[in-house]
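Look over this record before class:
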Amino acid sequence: MNWPSVEPVKSTRIYAEIVRQIRGLIADGQLKSGDRLPPERDLAERFRVSRTSVREALRALESTGLIEIRAGEGAFVRGISVESLVEPLALVILTQREAIADLYEARRLLEPPIAALAARRASPDEVQELERILDEQAKEVEAGRTGLAQDAAFHTAIAHSAHNRAISRIVTALMDLLTQTREDSLHTPGRPERSHQDHRRILAAIQARGEEAAQDAMLDHLVGVERLVMGREAPDEAGDGGAARAEAPASAPTPAPRRRRPAR
């Protein structure tokens, strides 16, 4: 194959810049699953860096699952997952406010129905795991910390409880992309407590097998977070301790009327 042109590397973190460029080539399809990367010496010449920097970059790419290094054969692009397609775009996406709004809109469209599925499908062990995560979050919040790790774990565990691998991967990718903005929101006074209260309401609905209640609780939670992140909610509103439904952002599409489920 004809190797795509690359830019000379000038960054002080040289290996990270090599990783960024190779990820970009994979993301836009110039490098495909099974393609063999040039030898270290050739890559060093193309990027105009040392072979040590190339070697560090290849190790980083292997650790994230983007390439496979085979002894005596070289480095090969691996099969591409949802996460590895989305992750190279994170640095670009997180610098664009409009794109962040799009990601939060995606969460509003995806996670409430996922919570409804979890209310229907979660096993007793999965419900118990959700309880454990929230107990840990409570301890973190009481200690004056944000509970960011438990926040992410809770949403991811709900996605797992829906028993749909594609859903699980998509939610994990969204959470990863929004890590910085979510962390910023959790530093707002009162927000960690409010987030924990919202999570408790979602869990209660899942425990009660209330699909519609779980969906509504998740939507309320996401709208509140989005309003805060996008500057549509004052900090004191974020910490009022209530779980009332917030108005949807102006950019949100009007949801279709929810069809009532027949009694079981």
Q: What stands out?
A: Residues 91-95, 233-264 have pLDDT under 50 and may be disordered. The first helix runs from residue 14 to 27. The beta strands are 67-70, 74-77. The radius of gyration is 22 Å.
